[in-house]
Design brief:
Keywords: Heme, Iron, Metal-binding, Monooxygenase, Oxidoreductase. This protein is of the alpha+beta class and about 450 residues long. It is built from 16 helices and 10 strands. The structure holds protoporphyrin IX containing FE.
Length: about 450
Amino acid sequence: MPDLPARFATTAPDAPGRLPLIGNAFQVLLNPKRFLEAMRPKKPVLRVRVGPFEFYLVNDPALIRQINLDSDVFHRGRLFDVVDRSLAASRFHCEGAAHRSVRKKLTPTFGQKGIREFAPAITRHARAHTDRWQDGSVLDIGREMEELAIGCTLDFLFGTPVTGDELAALRHALTILPRRFALETALPAWLTALPVPANRRFAATMADLTTLLDKLIDDQRRAPEPRGALAALITGSDHDRPREDVIRADILVILLAGIGTVAGTLAWAIIELARHPAASEQLDRELGAATAQEDPDLRALPCTRRMIEETLRLHSVTFLTQRASTAVTLGEVAIPAGAELVFSPNALHRDPTLHPGAGRFDPGRLGSTREHARAGSYLPFGIGAHRCPGEHLALTETVLMLATVQSRWNLRPVPGQALPHSDRVNAQPHGFLMTAEKRR
Ligand code: HEM
C-alpha cells in the first residue's frame, strides 16, 4: 500500500476493547499472543494503550517491511531499551557503524561455509547428549533441549567444547539470565536495584560470570590460533580494539539470543511430531537413509528441514519493536515522531489469509520460505538490519539435532498433561514431560 502524502493521513484507529484509563491493558497482559493475533485482521495499523504507554500495532506485511527496512526513520524500540539496561555495552544494541562492523566481522563464522565446518560438532553434541538418556526415562523436553543447545552454542562461540566447572558456571548463569531479563522488562529499574537478597544473588552471579568470561576472552587472546565466533569478536586494530566489557556483552547477547530460541524450536518440533504420527513417519523414511552416514549433510535432510520451518512458523517470537525517529506516514496513517511501533511475527504466521488453515501443523505447506519472507508472511528470524545473524547456525543445529534425536529415540508425551502454554511470550515449552524409548 503506497504511503499517503502527510496532509491526507489520518490518525490510527484505536484497538477494539479499549477501556478508560487502562486502555487495552487487560487484554494485552492477560494473553499478549492471543491479543496480537485477534488484532491482526482489524486494520493495517492500530493504536494500543496499556495504561499510560501507547504504541502503534503494525499488522500489514508491507508496512512491517517498511518499519524494518527504512533505517533513516525507524530504529530499535522499547523492547531493546530494557535489554540495554543490562547489556548496554553490546555492539548488537547499537545502530550504524559499530553495529555494521560487528555484523561484518561475524559474517565468515556465521555464513554458510563457517556453519558447514561446524556441522559435525553439532551432530557430536546431539549424539553425546542423547546417549546419556536411559531407555524408559521421563524427560523435561524443554530443559533437555536447552542443555544440548547450551553445550553446542558455547562450543561454537569459544571454538572448543567448554567442560567441568566452567560449563557448570555458564549453565547456571544462562538459565538465570533470561528469567531475570524478563523480570527487568516488567519492573521499574529502581526495584531491580534494591539491595534485597534476590538482587544481591543476581549481582553475585553476574560478578562470577564477568570473571569467567574475562578468563575465556584472555585465553582466546593468547591462543596461537584464535577460534570460534569469539575470535572475530575480539579482533580490531589498535585504535578500535574492542573493550572487555563490550566483548562480554556481545558474548551474552549471542548466548541469550542463540540458546532459548534453538532449544524452544527443537522441543516444539519434537512435541509436534509426537502429535502428528504421519509427519513423524515421513521423517523416519528420510532418516533411515540419511543418518546412516557418519556426518549427515543438511542437504540430505529436506524433510527434516520442512519440519523445522513449520515449527518456526507456529512457534515464533511474539513481538518485536521499532521506534519512529521523525513524524512519518505509514500507509494512510500519521505516526508522530518518537512513536513506539510493535509487530508480531507470530500473529503474521498464524493469519489464515496468509497461511490457509494456519493453526494446523503441516510441514511442506511453506514451499519456498524465501518467497514468503519476501512477501512479509514468514519472519521467524526478523527482518532488516538486526535480522538474526544466527539463521544458518540455527537451521543447521535444529535440523541435525532433530535428525539425531528422531533416529535414536521415540519420545512420547507422558499422558494427562496439557500442551505447554504456547500463549505465553516465551516460546520455550518448559515442564513438558516425555518418555524416551530407545529405537532398536
Ligand atoms: C531458531 C532459532 C532462532 C530464532 C528463531 C532467532 C530469531 C531471532 C530474531 C527474531 C531476532 C531479532 C531480529 C530483530 O531484532 O529484528 C534475532 C536476533 C539475533 N539473533 Fe537469533 N534466532 C535464532 C537463533 C540464533 C542463534 C543460534 C544465534 C547465535 C548463536 C543467534 C544470534 C542472534 C543475535 C546476535 C541477534 C541480534 C542481531 C542484531 O541485533 O544485529 N540467533 N534472532
